[in-house]
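Changelog-linked ticket: adenosine-5'-diphosphate example.
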Amino acid sequence: MVKGKPQLRLLSYGVIAYMLLAFTWWSILLFTKNRDAFAAKREYIHLIMAAQDNELTDEAFYTSPQYTTLENAYRRQEWMILGEALVFVVSLVIGVWLINRGYNKEMLAAQQRRNFLLSITHELKSPIASIRLVLETFRKRKLTDSQVGKLSNNGLKEAERLNKLVTDLLLSAKLEIAYAPYMEPINLAILLEEMVYKVQEKSPKTQILFHQDGSIPPIKGDKPGLTSVFINLLENAVKYSHSHTAVYAHIEAKQDQSIVIEITDNGIGIPDKEKKLIFEKFYRVGSENTRTTKGTGLGLYIVNEIIRAHNGNIQVLDNAPNGTIFKITLPIKHSKPSHNITQQTQNIEESTKI
Ligand code: ADP
C-alpha cells in the first residue's frame, strides 16, 4: 500500500462524505415536496370534481381519469428522483474509485522516482569514487606488478558498472519509445550456456549450473536483446543470493512449440505483493535507505520489454524452500521482421557488454 499525505486523504473523504449527506438530504426534501405537491393537487381536483358532482364518492374520485393521470405523474416523478439519486451515487463511487486509483499510482510513481534518484546517485558516485581512488593510488604510491594488476582490475570493473548503468538508462528510454527486435536464427541453449559462463567468471563465489533438457530447435530472435535478458536474470540471481549457494539455468523445448528457460536461485526470494511491481521501471524491493545491494531497478523492466517483443512471457515463481524462479516462455515460431534494425541492435549490444 502506498502511503500518501493522510491529512489530504481525510480532507477528500470528508468532502465526499459531505456531498453524499447533502445529496441525500436534498433527495429526501425533493421526495417530501413532490408528495406535498401531489397531495395539494389531489385536494384541488377533488374540490373541483365535488363542486361539479354533489354525489361524488371516494371510489369514483380515485378511479377518475383526472386522479389517475395525477397519480401516474406523481409516481413517475418519484422514480425519476430515485433514478437520479442512484446515478449520482454510482457516478460518485466510480469517481472516487478512479481518483483513489490515480492517487495511488501517482504515489507509487513518486516513490519510484525517489528510489531512482537515490539509487542512481549512489550508483554514479561509487564507481567514480573508486576509479578516482585507483588513479590517485597510482599517482602517489610505488606499486608492485601484482598490486597494479589488482587495482587496474578493480578500476575496470567499476568503469564497466558505470558503462552498464548509462547504457541501461539509454536502452530503457529507447524501449519505451520503439523497440523493434532484429530477428535472426538463434540457438538459445548455446546463448544461455555462453552467458552462464560469462556471469560465472565474474561471480566465483556462486556456482552457476547450466542444464539443457533434450535438443533445442533454433528460434528467430534478437540476439543482443536475449543476451541482455539472460545476463540480467543471471546477475540478479547471483546478486540476490548468499555466497556459496547455487544458481541454475535450465532450458527445454516443450511439446506446445515453445521453449522454456528457468533461472533459479536459492536467494532472498520476492514477496508475493512485489512480484508484479518488480517489472516496473526503477522499481526495487524495499527502501533505498536500508538496501545493501547495488542496482537501479531497470534490469527487469528491460527483460520484460524484450521478452514481450518476442511474443513471450515471463513469470516469477517461488523456489522451495527459498529463492526465486524466473520462468521465460518463448514461442518457437515467431515473428515479424523489424525496422530500424541496425540501430536497435547496436544499442542493445552496448548494454550487454560485460
Ligand atoms: P536492480 O537489480 O538493479 O535493483 P532489477 O530490475 O533487475 O533491478 O530488479 C528489480 C528488483 O527485483 C530488485 O531490486 C530486487 O529487489 C528484485 N529482484 C530481482 N531479481 C531477484 C532475485 N533473483 N531474487 C530476489 N529479488 C530479486
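Closing comment: Example verified and attached. The domain at 112-177 is CATH 1.10.287 (Helix Hairpins). The helical segments are 6-52, 58-62, 65-140, 145-177, 188-202, 223-239, 299-309, 341-352.
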